[in-house]
Amino acid sequence: MAAARRVLRWALAATAALAAALALDNGLARTPPMGWLHWERFLCGTDCAADPRRCVSERLFVEMADVMVAEGWRDAGYEFVCIDDCWMAPTRDERGRLQADPKRFPSGIRRLADYVHSRGLKLGIYSDVGNKTCAGFPGSYNHYDLDAQTFASWGVDLLKFDGCNSGTLELLAEGYRRMSLALNKTGRSIVYSCEWPFYLRPLQQPNYTEIKQYCNHWRNFFDVYDSWSSIKSILDWTALHQDSIVKIAGPGGWNDPDMLVIGNFGLSWDQAVTQMAMWAIMAAPLFMSNDLRRISPEAKWLLQNKETIAINQDPLGKQGYQITKDKNFELWERPLAGQAYAVAVLNQQEIGGPQNFTFPLTFLGNGLACNPACSVRQILPASRDWGVYSWVSSLSVEVNPTGTVLLKVVAL
Ligand code: GLA
């Protein structure tokens, strides 16, 4: 058995090394990037006279950066403050460069980046592969090099590159490739966040090996909304496509199931726990879209949960997957460094109360996660040691409707 385990460990290490070798070679996103992104919560608010606290403006990003430092978000690992769509002026400047809306960003992006850096954070910005962004602002088509240089000269650290209005599939692919090369050419370290496979999918199977050579993370599916049905649809999609997407994720390149919406209006406590637990299992980039200036202590506790973040950021860099689905229950696992597994038990039933799911520990890690014994610790919804189990034992887990119990199993 020990020999079999050694072989499996060797195979896992070899796969990880191969995945790393094929990733976009910019040295970034060795673990899933973490930060804050304005879109889901603040959308395209441009009327600062009517709504100064919520419009897309430098004030919003300065205030978010301040609170990220003051309230422990930066220390928890959330380092990027990201601007999404709608930051631009409606036209380029006289030299053809993108420019920020002068009313909403009177100091300009360069000054905003300086400020964000002075707080020990990084700045993300947004553009689009086509000639217009999804919200109708100027896109980067035909300007990839110039825009990459502009972003680098401003001190930008991440680019979210959307795929609206790109014309043909060839132009979409070429645009994503060219922007990646243009960013690399600037010499500045800029994380490259893509939506390439999402825009490709309705018409063509994405070539993930290629996408990983150009992007640090990539969206596959629709925008997240502040609702349980949205979270559920993302999880269902991911489980359905896991055979093609899980193996490709690893240091330097990640599947992006979109923003964390915890701390907003649409999710119950159990559903928020599910999003946090499952985004950790999926090795997802963790970009919160919420109002950190006003957030409940419970949401803050969950989003800053150290053990869950440690699972998300695990150095082995392997994405988790669904092992089995049994009526309303889903069992997922994620291999971790140090002969450990993160395990999630999700209860999809939306009627009734808490229910128990019982499964043999041999279900985990192809029978090796608890061999010959293991320690089990519950991480969410609250941390608690469950003690030591032998490989012939079963676990019985009580889960609330639409909730998840997240465990860490360490082989002894
Ligand atoms: C698309 C993206 C979203 C957001 C909007 C902005 O829908 O998927 O994440 O960036 O565009 O317009």
Which characteristics define this entry?
single chain, 412 residues, alpha/beta, TIM Barrel, Immunoglobulin-like, 2 domains, six-stranded antiparallel beta sheet, 14 helices, 16 strands, 33% helix, globular, disordered N terminus, binds alpha-D-galactopyranose
Overview of the molecule:
By secondary structure, this protein is α/β, with parallel strands linked by helices. The protein has two domains: 280 residues, Aldolase class I (TIM Barrel); 91 residues, Sandwich (Immunoglobulin-like). It is built from 14 helices and 16 strands. Strand 2, helix 5 and strand 3 form a beta-alpha-beta unit. Helix 3 packs parallel to helix 5. The chain is globular. The two termini are 14 Å apart. The N terminus is likely disordered. It binds alpha-D-galactopyranose. The site of alpha-D-galactopyranose has 9 residues, from loops.
**Ions and ligands:** alpha-D-galactopyranose
Instruction: Name the overall outline.
Output: globular
Distance between the termini: 14 Å
| Tally of distinct domains | 2
Count of individual helical segments: 14
Structural class: alpha/beta
- Please give the CATH architecture of the largest domain: Alpha-Beta Barrel
Q: What is the averaged pLDDT score?
A: 95
Proportion in helices: 25-40%
**CATH class designation of the largest domain:** Alpha Beta
**Do you know the CATH topology of the largest domain?**
TIM Barrel
Quantity of strands, as a count: 16
